[in-house]
Hints:
single chain; mainly alpha
Amino acid sequence: MWLQILIFFTTFFIMEFMAWFSHKYIMHGFLWVLHADHHKKDHDSWFERNDAFFIFYAVVSIGCFLLWKYDIFIYGIAIGLGILAYGIAYFFVHDIFIHQRFKFFRNADNRYARAVRRAHKMHHKHIGKEHGECFGMLIVPLKYYKK
Length: 147
């Protein structure tokens, strides 16, 4: 049981690195065609092509659940839940808190919230795929905590 909990939290933490890596090298790389509409709002739709990226991690998470369910991989549940939890956190921080796709958490104002918003704003100041910065989501560089 304790090992499952440790694997869950480790997976959640590793997902921050995976988000950074996939954002920097995949979204701002060969799949920029899907991510570009997130940086340059040249469409009227609430949905973006960028929204397709969640499907990959959802499939990986579901795959882990299935490996656990069919007794193929005992730690599949912990890994699948860790990926799912990170996806939920990412959705709340990125889509709801930062981009206000739903009008919740508009008044959140603490040191961490301001740092997350600053870091993401710096990321979005570049509308092209090159010269980007701050590709992570939950772990914010210290320079963004300063006023």
